C-alpha cells in the first residue's frame, strides 16, 4: 500500500511541474509535506537505505516550510522543549538526506531545504530564492544544463556539481506588490 501511495505522490509532483516551484501561500502544506515524506520513504526503500527516526525527524523539520534552515536552526527545532539530540547526530542525518537527494544545500544561505520535487539526483536544479518571503523554489531545465555543459566543455573544464541560485521575488510576493 505504502508503495502505491508513494508512486501517486511522485506522479503528482511530476505533473505539478514548474507551476508549483512556489506553492501558493494557502496550499495544503500538510499534504505537500506528507507526500514528500512518502517519496522519501520510497526512495530509501528502492535504495535499500533506512529512513531512521532521526533522519525522518530532520526531514520533517525541513518539510515544515518551503524556507531553508541553517544547521543550528534544524537542531533547535528537533527538540523545541526537551533535550536536544547531539548536533553531530543531526548533521549525519542531514548528510544522509543530502546524499540521497532528499535535501538540498542552498550555498548562498548556508542553509538546507527539503526537496519536494521528484527529479533525478544528478539533475541540474536552479534554485530560485525569494528575497521577500524567503521561500526557495526549484526549476530544472534541460536546456540550461546542456548550455552549461557545453560552456564548460569548450573551456576544457570538467564540471562536478553545478550550483545555480537566483535571488529575486517569487510569483506570490510579486502578486502582492
Ligand atoms: Zn508545501
Ligand atoms: Zn530538488
Ligand atoms: Zn516570496
Task: Please outline the helices and strands.
Blueprint: H1 2-16, H2 29-46, H3 53-62, H4 71-78, H5 87-99, E1 103-106, E2 111-114, E3 126-130, E4 136-139, H6 142-154, E5 164-168, H7 171-176
Helix pairs in contact: 1-2, 3-4, 3-5
Would you give an account of this structure?
This protein is an alpha+beta fold and 177 residues long. It has a single domain (2-176), classed as Arc Repressor Mutant, subunit A (Orthogonal Bundle), CATH 1.10.10.10. Helix content is 47%, strand content 12%. The chain contains 7 helices and 5 strands. The strands form 2 sheets. A 3-stranded mixed beta sheet has the order 4-3-5, with no helix packed on it. A two-stranded antiparallel ribbon has the order 1-2. Strand 1 and strand 2 (111-114) form a beta hairpin. The N and C termini lie far apart (45 Å). 27% of the residues are buried. Mean pLDDT is 86; it is low at 1-6 and 12-19.
Amino acid at each position: 500500500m505504502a508503495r502505491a501511495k508513494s508512486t501517486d505522490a511522485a506522479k503528482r509532483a511530476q505533473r505539478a511541474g514548474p507551476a508549483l516551484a512556489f506553492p501558493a501561500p494557502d496550499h495544503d502544506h500538510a499534504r505537500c509535506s506528507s507526500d514528500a515524506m512518502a517519496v522519501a520513504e520510497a526512495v530509501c526503500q528502492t535504495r535499500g537505505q533506512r529512513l531512521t527516526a532521526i533522519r525522518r525527524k530532520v526531514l520533517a523539520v525541513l518539510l515544515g516550510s518551503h524556507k531553508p534552515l541553517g544547521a543550528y536552526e534544524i537542531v533547535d527545532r528537533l527538540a523545541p522543549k526537551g533535550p536536544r539530540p547531539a548536533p553531530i547526530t543531526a548533521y549525519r542525518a542531514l548528510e544522509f538526506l543530502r546524499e540521497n537527494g532528499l535535501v538540498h544545500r542552498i550555498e548562498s544561505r548556508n542553509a538546507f531545504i527539503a526537496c519536494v520535487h521528484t527529479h533525478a539526483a544528478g539533475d541540474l536544479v536552479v534554485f530560485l530564492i525569494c528575497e521577500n518571503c524567503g521561500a526557495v523554489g526549484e526549476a530544472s531545465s534541460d536546456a540550461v544544463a546542456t548550455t552549461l555543459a557545453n560552456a564548460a566543455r569548450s573551456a576544457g573544464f570538467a564540471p562536478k556539481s553545478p550550483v545555480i541560485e537566483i535571488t529575486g521575488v517569487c510569483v506570490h510576493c510579486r502578486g502582492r506588490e
